[in-house]
Amino acid sequence: MTDPLVAFGDSPFFLHAHPDDESISTGGTIAALLRNDVPVTILTGTRGERGEVVPGELESLEGTELLGPHRVGELADALGALGEPAHAFLGAAPARASGRPERVYSDSGMRWGADGFAEAAGDASPASLSLAPLDVVVDDVLAAAFETRPSAMVSYDAQGGYGHPDHVRMHDAGVEVARRLGIPYFAIVEPRAPGSGLEAGMNDAAADARTDGALLEVDLTQTGTLAQKTRAMAAHRTQLSIDGDTFVLSGVQRHPIGTVEWFLRVF
């Protein structure tokens, strides 16, 4: 059987919108790549300062200026659990275009739409990631890419997984950068998204992709990195809690910890 990790090449670049996304959606794959001595770079778009906080001792951080810095610390702990991939925040060196002052892209916030997908909250700051001009975001991602010479871009699908506007912005920038560099783009297949079909089995599109070889399946029981992924997720204490083989989000949504991570090669 062909090792699915080979498809990412020798220096994959993961684009994520907020701290915790890297662990929930791709943590096992990142850990497996690092175990195989493949250097991984993670670029995080925001500090997640508008995230909802799980009930408990950290709940008082929600809506305050302290949440963003706290989540930066959680991210550092999570990256340590995954094996210390290279990391940068969008807008800060090396992920800032030459000649531009560093900036902080703020979390755009979200609300749940009637269709079960996230949508823009309606009160995003002018400094938010989702409202930043796409060409500016692309230039910043390119600046980081020129430093690492990535072999592949890995980020969200066109809907941002479950619809978050910051996810969509990172997808749009990642696709453009991958096209300019002439490298593959892999979209994360998000099993929590409504209609994905992955909780119970592949939907039609994913099944077709599996047949033609465009769908990568990284089985964490085979890579031996499920425990690392779980520890990394647990580091994001403001955002989720681990309960056995499930995790619980701030809205009390309970999901299984993914033992398989799927990626769809877009081009």
UniProtKB/TrEMBL annotation:
Regions that span the bilayer: none
Keyword Disulfide bond (UniProt): no
A Pfam cross-reference name: PIG-L
Alphabetized UniProt keyword annotations: Zinc
Record-given protein name: PIG-L family deacetylase
Lineage, highest ranks first: Bacteria, Bacillati, Actinomycetota, Actinomycetes, Micrococcales
